[in-house]
Amino acid sequence: MRRILLKVAYDGTNYNGWQKQPDVVTIEGTINETLSRILEEDISIIGASRTDAGVHALCNIAVFDTNTSIPAEKIAFALNRRLPRDIVIQESREVPLDFHPRDSESIKTYEYTILNTKFPLPTKRLYSYHVHKDINIEAMKEAAKYLEGTHDYKSFCLAKTQVYTTVRTVYSITIDKEGDIIKFTFKGNGFLYNMVRCIVGTLVYVGRGVYPPEYVKEILEKRDRQEAGPNAPAQGLILANIEYVNKEELIIREDKC
Predict the structure, then answer these.
(1) Which residues contact 19 (CB under 8 A, 6 or more apart)?
(2) Alpha carbons 156 and 179: distance in angstroms, whole number
(3) I want to staple 217 with a disulfide (CB 3.0 to 4.6 A). Which of 77, 84, 146, 199 is the partner?
(4) Which entry of 11, 23, 42, 52 is annotated as an active-site residue?
């Protein structure tokens, strides 16, 4: 038995998220079916991040176990010949059998893009959130500082999220503006369901003057989803990179896929 790691990039527009579900098309389901045909085995991949419907990825990580004798690096080529054009395997390699993409310590990087123009641009509609009102970048940066560190982020995830704990560590939130594009970059040890989108939606409320920056600290402390702003749309979000930090099992280096 061998364990193969895949670096997966995808445009999530036409998929109902990463996780395999009955009667809908997903990233995981599509890769499972394609791999099973190629290897003539029943393959089920395990992904590092279960992105939502419409969310994109430059670098999601998945592993699967197989008895195939095909060289690991050749599997990416075989998959890319058969997968839809909006899913591309960037690399395939063999890893230790005990490596698990979700259980191993990692740093995840998400990026969120806002198009801040009077009218939307058709070419950016699938990859950004259009906000036509003026946004105060400095106010958002001030508010974002309250969300860095180790906190209980219950206010910033789906109310019915079923996890052991809603405590996470966010190492940094950076916000940059270039022309009409505002880009948020989040680095953390893990993110709850809808967490990044909810934080962005809340920070946009700050940028528009609906909330003062310091109110974000109150939202965090109340641990109530109803206190935060709305979720920003899925299409602006990209899983940009995953870095495994245990040096004995370093799989993804600091450069992006």
Answers:
(1) 26, 28, 47, 50
(2) 29
(3) 146
(4) 52
Identify whether residues 147 and 204 lie together within a single domain: yes
Which is more confidently placed, 105 or 196? 196
- DSSP string for residues in 70-93: S-HHHHHHHHHHHS-TTEEEEEEE
| Opening angle at CA 163, ends 159 and 165, nearest 5 | 95
> 126 and 85 share a domain?
no
Which burial class, exposed, middle or buried, applies to 97 when counting CB atoms under 10 A from its CB (0-12, 13-18, 19+)?
Answer: exposed
Least reliable range by pLDDT among 76-90, 96-110, 215-229:
96-110
The gap from C-alpha 16 to its chain's centroid, in whole angstroms, comes to: 14
**What pTM, to 2 d.p., does this model score?**
0.93
- Count other C-beta atoms under 10 Å from residue 29's C-beta: 20
Burial of 137 (0-12, 13-18, 19+ CB in 10 A): middle
Number of domains, the chain: 2
Model confidence pLDDT, tens digit, residues 192-219: 999 999 999 999 999 999 999 999 999 9
The pairing of beta strand 129-130 with beta strand 56-66: unpaired
> Do residues 94 and 182 both lie within one domain?
no
180 included as an active-site residue:
no
Contacts of 165 (CB under 8 A, 6+ apart): 152
